[in-house]
Amino acid sequence: MDPIILIIFLALVGYALASAKMVNQGNVALVERLGRYHRKLNPGLSFIVPIIDQIVMENTTREQLLDIKPQNVITKDGIYLEVDAIVYWRIQDIEKSFYAIDDLEQSLANIATTTLRENIAQNSLEDTNMSRDQIDRTILSVLNSITVTWGVEITRLDIQSITPPETVRRSMEEQQNAQIKKRAAILAAEGEEEAAVKRAKGTKTSIEIISEALRSHPESKDILRYLVAQDYVDASEKLGASNNAKIVFVDPANSTEMFQELISDSVQENHIKNPGNGNGNGNGAN
């Protein structure tokens, strides 16, 4: 083979190898020609002009993670907190990300840290704990308004932990326990009140039924006296079985008059409420 032809062949092979550039999927490359921006290379095989063209940057367009180191922040009410967060971001415009900012990742870390501290400093400790999602959205909006000029989108910001001093943590735990006990006491009181109302309604209904029965059937008074006396005996036995009970003895004669007066009052009250339903026997019963 002619040496000149061999040299030309080798030169063409070397040129082809030097001009061929492979960009992996998910990446974008930036090409300069004679020191000025020329074009960007998308994933796949591309060709450039050796010596004249130069790849100055190749970066991923996939979402990336930036870990914000724990920061000491003072809240609006003067509480020192240690805040830890992570930022998810991706390159939207590789040209801006290279030419608009010098050190992209360091700049993102600095602006995220500053914005995080400023936002938490505007809130109290309670607001910071209760409105963490709102704080995340607020910081995300502020960051994107700045990084858009860098060709970068902040996709998500998560505050991982908010750590107050030990004394504040103990105080928060005590306050939470007090709130739990308060809610339990309120529920118990509401339950007792509801039960008392139901018992009172049941007693009222029972008295009305008994009064109606006595008004309609005066001869049933003796049965009622027997039932009341039986309940009195049962109650006395229960009181006697209790170690802390105090037994009060009632004169049977007086108790009979008391029961009779109670029955008579109940019948009269029911008759006043229902004057049209009587048969004239209720007022004369003994």
UniProtKB/TrEMBL annotation:
<dbReference type="InterPro" id="IPR036013">
    <property type="entry name" value="Band_7/SPFH_dom_sf"/>
</dbReference>
<feature type="domain" description="Band 7">
    <location>
        <begin position="18"/>
        <end position="176"/>
    </location>
</feature>
<protein>
    <submittedName>
        <fullName>SPFH/Band 7/PHB domain protein</fullName>
    </submittedName>
</protein>
<dbReference type="InterPro" id="IPR050710">
    <property type="entry name" value="Band7/mec-2_domain"/>
</dbReference>
<dbReference type="InterPro" id="IPR001972">
    <property type="entry name" value="Stomatin_HflK_fam"/>
</dbReference>
<feature type="compositionally biased region" description="Gly residues">
    <location>
        <begin position="277"/>
        <end position="286"/>
    </location>
</feature>
<dbReference type="Pfam" id="PF01145">
    <property type="entry name" value="Band_7"/>
</dbReference>
<dbReference type="InterPro" id="IPR001107">
    <property type="entry name" value="Band_7"/>
</dbReference>
<feature type="region of interest" description="Disordered">
    <location>
        <begin position="267"/>
        <end position="286"/>
    </location>
</feature>
